[in-house]
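MODEL INPUT / OUTPUT PAIR
PAIR INDEX: 1
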Amino acid sequence: MPKKLCLTCGVVTDQSRCVLHRKTAARGYGTEHQKSKAEAISIAPYCWNCGCSAYTCKLAWHHVTELRGGRNPEKDDRRQLLCSNCHLNVKERN
């Protein structure tokens, strides 16, 4: 497949968007993932690292134990809600 530039950030990729900018469903995060994230936000609507509000920053699930090969119910409790900045910082450290 020919290489393309991500329409959002310009990174070289094999699709129209890089992995970071693809829709969550295209990356394997379906309805169940979105529901559990929404439930967690309704319980604690802030970043678990820096404390910024879900109303002022975008929150993302961070898998403390990386999932390999799809959903792993035993490891679902090993997630944190982090803002985009904290999530990127954590991913860069690992």
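PAIR INDEX: 2
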Amino acid sequence: MRLTFHSTLLGVILLLLSMMALGPARQLYDEQQHIRNDERQLAAGDAETRQLVGRLQAMRDPNHLELLARQELGYVRPGEVSYVIVHPQPAATKAPKVKPKTSSWWQRAWSHVRHPW
């Protein structure tokens, strides 16, 4: 099969068009990736918003507030007696004494020469 001028010209034109379309196609792909990332972040933010709204609604309930005050802050009603259980702390173990390194007089002198301060 012999290549004619018109078929070569058509091939060159198609090659140039495909090369010209490659840049915008890559940009479109990058933008779609960016949109997907933004949608994921938005969904995570929506989930956090729902959780915080639920906590806010729970804080408006007086029974829930009383429960939190009792558990977290140790509040009691008038007439009630509060007991605090203190667990004994384990005795602190003494670190074994480390024998100081003994060095000869010339090692001490040399260390002062190398590090005068």
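PAIR 2 NOTE: The CA atoms of residues 90 and 96 lie 18 Å apart.
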